[in-house]
């Protein structure tokens, strides 16, 4: 996907926000806010404010990111899991950028914050290693990591489930209104709601990211320099606002043009901002499929800071990918515009099978 020119600075938009207290109230109708953030005309993102204790948990984990990245090489090698395609434990230099080059700018640590061992079934572990594998913690080298990772991941998972409840209410309202227009009953089965699907899933995945400091001024970098254009294929992605540091001291981002960019349905590029004490959530492709398109995923990327002030700058952040269980059968709507070629005519796909097809399409790692 082509990037716009570096000289043009896209408009900056604040996320739609929902307070934690409103989110807790299951009887409250938040459909207008859900539609504004996640609907067909939205940016596919909104943020939750005033989550009790979140700021402390965010800070506790992000400050561990540089310590993890600077562990001895042999220790980090023990944390790698090639069988899972490096989707558990430490990963550095294994992923490719849009240019096709290996990404040496950042390292990642992946773990399931809810279940250390989601299954002991050897067949499933072999079939779906990126979901069914077990967590790998640096128990001796950095024991604080497991505690901090699980605390933040579980909190973001709980808040995500609350948000999923209100997403279901929004979709139900939409279907009820549509039923009246077309004079036939259209409804979402109780077990097909986003909240139920995510609540019974055994494979949420957290990703702690660390961007290594460089001596370069980065004046000629592209818009997608830190993370290439993509659309999440899961259901909900929780995002912690990134923390910038220089020489182990927290500093503000030195470039106002750096950050998260979204491509809208009308093909506009928009820079999206949210507060460091807020949890942002983005809609993924699977949520769009399951909601028959009423919740909309959008392509996005992350731009690195530019200029002399960006040299020796390091960044930590955390993402939580909430997705269906690998055995969850996906019910595709009649009209699908996302990956139509992957949908089987012989019957429904499980989320695990759908993921395999996506990996085959983009990475050609399996035949």
From TrEMBL:
UniProt superkingdom: Eukaryota
Please give the Gene3D superfamilies that the UniProt record associates with this protein: B-lactam Antibiotic, Isopenicillin N Synthase, Chain
Q: List, alphabetically, the InterPro entries matched.
A: IPNS-like_sf (IPR027443)
Q: What is this protein called?
A: Fe2OG dioxygenase domain-containing protein
